[in-house]
Structure formats: structure tokens, C-alpha cells
Amino acid sequence: MCSSCTRLVKGLAVEFEQLRQIDAIARTGTFSAAAEALHTSQPSVSRSMRALERELGCELFNRSRNHVELNESGQLALKHARAILAEERRMRDAFDDLTRTNRTLNVASVAPAPVWRLASRVTERFPGTMLTSETIDDEQEVERRLFDRSADLAITRRPIGLPNVVCVPFMVENLFIYAPATDPIAQQTSVKLADLDGRTFLMNADVGFWGDMTRAALPNARIIMQQDSNVLAQLIRTSDVLGFVTDASEFNHPDENRVRVPIQDADAHATFYVVAMIDAPQAVLDIVEAVRR
Q1: What CA–CA distance (Å, rounded) separates 268 from 207?
Q2: What are the tens digits of pLDDT across the range 143-183?
Q3: How many alpha carbons lie under 13 Å from residue 125 in its C-beta half-sphere?
Q4: How many whole angstroms from its chain centre is CA 50?
Q5: DSSP 278
Q6: Is 151 helix (H, G, I), strand (E, B) or coil?
């Protein structure tokens, strides 16, 4: 680290986040705009800058009602802050380069299909990065895995608007009834699940929240959950039992004996979000950014 950087922090309790904040204030011109850029709150930035001023023993800003401007001391602090942040970025990049090859990232997801699509995109964009995943029915548990860092990425059905996370929309998945062509349901342009309550259905056991959703919507139906996808595919081909399929499903291949019938229920249409902690490793944030594009 350069000597000027050392002089700024030597004997001082200065945090990297404070350095990022003073840089953001210089770039945006207000505490509120800096807070938005850093995905935090304006009062948090204000408190942090007051603490930094107390630590350094001088005021750093000329404050007006709608604008803040760095004074001479603030400009000096900004110069050193940016030097330290540049050093930190170079160190992070060096370690990211060291560990990027054969990196394995953990994904907690409420459904399997978004993981399939994310894994395909990661394989294409980030060779050497592998995803391991767990499908979890409970959305709160998915979020908990992210916050306790046991998952690097989370895939949720609802956006998370917290200042310490980055959350981007990823994909939409729609659920269909997969009906035999001879079933009267196959002749309908769409159906409501309540109209099918009491029927028997085949369903993949590893479908995440879709299982809970269909059981709640069809309390009197018999839903046969099948763990083995090959057995399920065989049953779908050879039986006259209704099934479920999505537009991101492994049963997406045309079958002359089956018809996909759209479901009208709002819960049959899911938007998924990819979520990471804002201070996650750069390899994780790179994936989120690739999703954003």
C-alpha cells in the first residue's frame, strides 16, 4: 500500500465503507444520491460521515440545504480514500483471478428451472465456474441461506429490496396442465385449478414451491409425486393421468398424445429473481451483472 494511504489510516479507526461513501458523495453531490448509489439509507451515510469527521478531527464538507461540497480537508481525505480503494480493488481482483478457475458457487433456489437456466448462462459466460444447488420449498429459508452466507446466490420469487443485497429479475416460468389429447381438458383454451380439484395428477417431486402451490390450490386432488424423472416421463407417455409441465420444463418436447393447457391462476405464473449480498465476491457479482444484462 502506498505511503500516503498509510498516513491516512495510521492510528485511525476508518472503515472501507466510509471511504466508499465519501467517494460517492464527491461523485453525486448529495448524501441521498450517494446513499442510493451504495444501496443504503441517507441517514446511515450522514451518521457515517459525522463519525468520520470526529475521527479525523475536522469537518469535511460545506453543507447547504440541497447540496454538499467537499472542503479543503474533504478534498484531501477524498484523495487518500480513492488511493486506498484502488489498492483494495487491486487486491480483490488479484485474489479473484487466483480463485476463479474451478470456482464452485452454491445456489439456493425456490424452483429448479431457474437454476438450469442460470447454470447454462454461467457455463457460457464464466468457464471454470461451477454451480451447486439446492431446491427449497420455503422462500424464507432460501433467503436465510443467503444472509448466513451458506449460499452465494439465491433465486427467489419476490424481489428483496434491502440495502445490503443486489437483486435483479431473471426469468418468468408458467405452469400448464399436461393433459392427454383424449381428455376433455385438452380441448379448453385455459383452465382454473379449482375446476380440476378432485382429479389425479402426476408431478415431479423436485419442483420446489410448485408442489406447495398445487397442493394448496387442489386440496381434494390426488397428486402422485415421482422422484425418478425417467419413471415420470414414462408415466406421462403411457398413462391418461393429468400432469403438470412448465415452459422451462424437461418435458418441453412436443408429444402428440399430450396437450399443454394454460392455467389462469395468478400463482401459476412465477417471476424469479437472482439475489446476492452486495459485498459478495466479485465472481458472484459478475454473475448477477450478467443476469442484469
Answers
A1: 13
A2: 999 999 999 999 999 999 999 999 999 999 999 999 999 99
A3: 16
A4: 33
A5: T
A6: coil
CB-based contacts of 241: which residues, under 8 Å, 6+ apart? 200, 201, 202, 224, 235
Determine which helix (DSSP H) or strand (DSSP E) holds 109, and give its type and residue range. strand 104-109
CB distance 236 to 176 below 8 Å: no
Q: Please tell me the distance from the alpha carbon of residue 134 to that of residue 112, in angstroms, as a whole number.
A: 8
Backbone φ and ψ of 256, nearest 5°:
-65, -15
Roughly what angle, to the nearest 10 degrees, separates helices 16-28 and 42-56? 110
pTM check: above 0.90: no
- Among 5, 9, 44, which Cα is nearest to 25's? 44
CB 119 within 8 A of CB 105: no
CA 110 to chain centre: 11
- Whether residue 114 contacts residue 107, with contact meaning beta carbons closer than 8 Å, is answered with no
